[in-house]
Specification:
Layout lengths: L3 E2 L30 E2 L4 H12 L5 H4 L5 H5 L6 E3 L3 E2 L9 E2 L9 H12 L3 E6 L10 H14 L4 E5 L9 H7 L4 E3 L9 H4 L5 H14 L4 E8 L5 H13 L4 E6 L16 H13 L4 E4 L9 H18 L1
């Protein structure tokens, strides 16, 4: 028998009173199309043990991802480096905000060891925001990439980075390490930044993605947003155009799910048909790869999507 779970408060970590969009937001009941398998398979537990024994943090757990049961049952885990405490307080995010701990010098090698044990062909590395560090953690990303290249030379590497806001030279350092995919999420449309992503700047994020392509056109670029935060359809379409103007290759669109009552409220649940329509429009605008569904997340099916992305670019070059 398959057990289905409601993903509301999937990781009940209500430690963010500063993130409240308004006091005690009621959490909307989820529609039938947002249901996931309860975690607990033998492979899931094996993945969990590998993560624990290497003293690693995963965004799967910290952000309460609804797809953790599926991904960990395939030995797919997204590593979150530089600790589990973020220097920002985004209203949608379930990661703890506070004063971070010092960087762990053993973390790059531990990530590589875990990737080897999990047998990952494609790995996604993300991080908390580390505004306290001079380079925002850019060098730490570089060291993780280098450790993975040494231990797992056949593994393709996707990074999901912070915006490195006001950190001169940080982006250049990470791009020079040549990840296969450089992902930086816009998260939402610009009109929602003040309440959803107050510490960030929309056009800085667009410019960051554009600079990746200017520095190294061979690196795939990727960005993602959540919907259901009160954005208008035309705002989403304009965001697509902004990303294409920065030559971004891959777009992900998923439903925002409110982690706790202290987080930004869900304004509505976007229907599967609407997600399909967004996907069709995004492909028409020129994205090489689009993933758009209620449970789409940045790293969900990232390995399979990377192969499709690479094939799409080869096909495009073949037509040129």
């Amino acid at each position: 028998m398959v057990t289905l779970i409601d993903t509301t408060e999937a990781a009940p970590r209500a430690r963010h009173p500063e993130k409240a969009h308004r006091p005690d937001n009621p959490i909307m009941r989820k529609p039938d199309w947002i249901r996931v398998r309860a975690p607990g398979s033998p492979v899931y537990k094996e993945t969990q043990e590998i993560v624990r024994e290497n003293n690693l943090v995963t965004v799967c757990e910290e952000a309460g991802c609804p797809n953790i049961g599926e991904c960990w049952s395939k030995k797919h885990a997204t590593m979150m480096i530089m600790g589990e405490i973020c220097t920002r307080a985004c209203a949608f995010c379930n990661v703890t905000t506070g004063i971070p701990t010092p960087l762990d010098p053993d973390e790059p090698e531990n990530v590589a060891i875990a990737a080897e044990k999990l047998g990952l062909k494609h790995i996604v590395i993300t991080s908390v925001d580390r505004d306290d560090l001079e380079d925002g953690g850019a060098q730490h990303f570089v060291e993780v990439i280098e450790a993975l290249r040494r231990r797992c030379p056949e593994t393709t590497i996707e990074i999901l980075t912070p915006d490195f806001l006001r950190k001169p030279g940080a982006l250049e350092k990470v791009v020079a390490a040549k990840p296969d995919v450089f992902n930086h999420n816009l998260e939402t449309v610009p009109s929602k930044y003040l309440t959803v992503r107050p510490g960030a700047r929309y056009f800085h994020s667009i410019r960051l993605l554009q600079q990746v392509k200017e520095l190294d056109p061979t690196i795939f670029t990727k960005s993602g947003i959540m919907v259901g935060l009160g954005e208008e359809r035309n705002e989403v379409l304009q965001l697509m155009d902004d990303l294409r103007s920065a030559d971004v290759d891959f777009l992900t669109i998923g439903q925002y799910l409110q982690p706790t009552k202290k987080h930004h409220a869900i304004e509505r649940f976007v229907t599967p048909d609407e997600f399909k329509a967004f996907e069709k429009i995004a492909f028409a605008k020129g994205f090489l790869m689009v993933s758009s569904s209620p449970l789409t997340r940045s790293s969900h099916h990232a390995g399979e999507d990377f192969e499709r992305l690479r094939a799409a670019r080869e096909a495009k070059l073949g037509r040129a």
